[in-house]
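Example 9 (inverse folding). The structure is encoded as follows.
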């Protein structure tokens, strides 16, 4: 005989459902902060303040200086526009500096990008020793430009530098060689420094672009009987265009703003034959103590760089659309 257990009160019966834990009310953000536009402005505000303080305000100040009589030690003496622009363009060093800067830019751009592309093609494939050579080619770019210029200034010295002594011991020359003694040798010696310094950096950019090209494209071209030259012209160069555009933009801009290497190696000599536009800005500001003409030349350089960048971007867009 089974004895039936007495019924429990409803309050004492075990519940089959798990007890729900009461959560504390979640703190909600204000309505105005939940807006995506306001939140985006909040995230962008620190960068906007940085750009305004360190770029926009100095640019406006340089623009004011370019329109004013502004000696370095006396301050603003009032507006004299457009005297600063006419004075700097009438300077005896202005047009020679422009011609030399353009010549230097063309030589460096052609030699540097050609060598960087060649190095990138050599170390493109994953083969034994490729990583070692990539590192060796890239190492000079880790050195600062001023430090590299001082290093080469010591190497080029005809009295204490090792290069002249090595050439004499090999019997190639009879007298010490002055690598910076003539305008041509000074230009070529500086170009050699820049190529040695930046070839590995541009090689790395082009190498990344080469590795993004699918291998299937090359395999399909080989199956169709395309030669290496045809593959390079029809596949590699078109697909490498974004990386080439980036390296071209960096190389042209950096060459037009060349200062450190010539200031350390040649001081603008011999006979002011290696004076660049940025060196001319330095001379006007800190040797002639005229911030007005220096600011005017800075505005001209900025306008030229903006124009070149716009033309390059338009050319790339047209090439991509075609």
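The amino acid assigned to each position is listed next.
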């Amino acid at each position: 005989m089974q004895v039936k257990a007495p019924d429990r009160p409803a309050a004492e019966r075990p519940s089959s459902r798990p007890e729900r834990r009461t959560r504390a009310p979640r703190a909600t953000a204000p309505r105005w902060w939940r807006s995506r536009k306001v939140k985006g402005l909040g995230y962008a505000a620190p960068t906007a303040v940085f750009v305004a303080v360190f770029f926009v305000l100095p640019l406006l100040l340089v623009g004011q200086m370019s329109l004013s009589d502004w000696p370095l030690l006396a301050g603003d003496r009032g507006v004299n526009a457009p005297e600063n622009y006419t004075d700097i363009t009438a300077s005896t060093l202005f047009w020679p500096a422009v011609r030399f800067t353009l010549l230097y830019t063309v030589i460096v751009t052609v030699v540097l990008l050609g060598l960087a592309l060649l190095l990138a093609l050599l170390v493109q494939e994953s083969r034994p020793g490729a990583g070692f050579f990539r590192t060796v080619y890239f190492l000079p770019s880790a050195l600062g430009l001023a430090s590299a210029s001082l290093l080469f200034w010591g190497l080029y010295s005809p009295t204490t530098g090792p290069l002249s002594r090595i050439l004499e011991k090999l019997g190639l020359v009879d007298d010490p060689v002055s690598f910076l003694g003539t305008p041509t040798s000074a230009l070529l010696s500086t170009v050699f420094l820049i190529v040695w310094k930046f070839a590995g950096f541009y090689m790395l950019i082009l190498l990344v672009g080469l590795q993004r090209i699918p291998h299937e494209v090359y395999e399909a071209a080989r199956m169709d009987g395309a030669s290496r030259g045809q593959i390079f012209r029809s596949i590699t160069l078109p697909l490498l265009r974004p990386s080439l555009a980036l390296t071209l933009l960096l190389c042209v801009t950096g060459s037009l703003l060349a200062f450190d290497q010539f200031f350390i190696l040649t001081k603008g000599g011999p006979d002011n034959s290696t004076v660049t536009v940025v060196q001319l800005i330095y001379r006007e500001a800190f040797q002639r103590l005229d911030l007005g003409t220096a600011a005017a030349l800075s505005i001209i350089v900025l306008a030229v760089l903006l124009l070149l960048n716009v033309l390059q971007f338009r050319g790339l867009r047209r090439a991509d659309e075609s």
